[in-house]
Write a structure and sequence with these properties.
Blueprint: H1 3-6, H2 24-33, H3 38-54, H4 60-88, H5 108-127
């Protein structure tokens, strides 16, 4: 692993802004109730947190646009960034861009992908000291 890639976060880990854990059940519920509109907010929030922590990546605004225009690309891009989050921290990536292929299994694939990626994010943020996800 190159030094440049591991240092992409800039500064010591304690100096970086942590993301927050999100309730998987509550997010799924709100997404269903809003007929999918909540996915735009979720993509923005997670994209922004990833960029701020890693000092690299697409960021919230780009994820918002990508999700609005062509949502399936978000599944590949976000999974890739979450994997890099772990790699930057010297850990094996629990998820890769290939997880975006879950889009090929309608409905169920979306749930499988979302639960996996949110588990990875929650686990990472909690390992750095963020509060556990509250809610459902």
């Amino acid at each position: 692993m190159s030094t440049e890639h591991t240092m992409s976060g800039g500064g010591s880990p304690s100096d970086r802004p942590l993301g927050r854990g999100r309730s998987k059940g509550l997010t799924i519920l709100v997404t269903i109730v809003t007929l999918g509109i909540w996915t735009l907010v979720w993509s923005y929030q997670n994209g922004e947190e990833l960029k701020k922590y890693r000092n690299d990546g697409l960021g919230g605004a780009i994820y918002l646009i990508l999700t609005f225009i062509f949502a399936p690309i978000t599944m590949f891009m976000m999974a890739d960034e979450v994997g890099k989050l772990y790699i930057d921290d010297g850990q094996p990536a629990p998820i890769t861009a290939l997880w975006g292929l879950w889009i090929l299994l309608p409905i169920i694939g979306l749930f499988v992908w979302y639960i996996k990626i949110q588990n990875c994010l929650n686990d990472f943020w909690e390992s750095k000291g963020a509060a556990p996800a509250a809610g459902l």
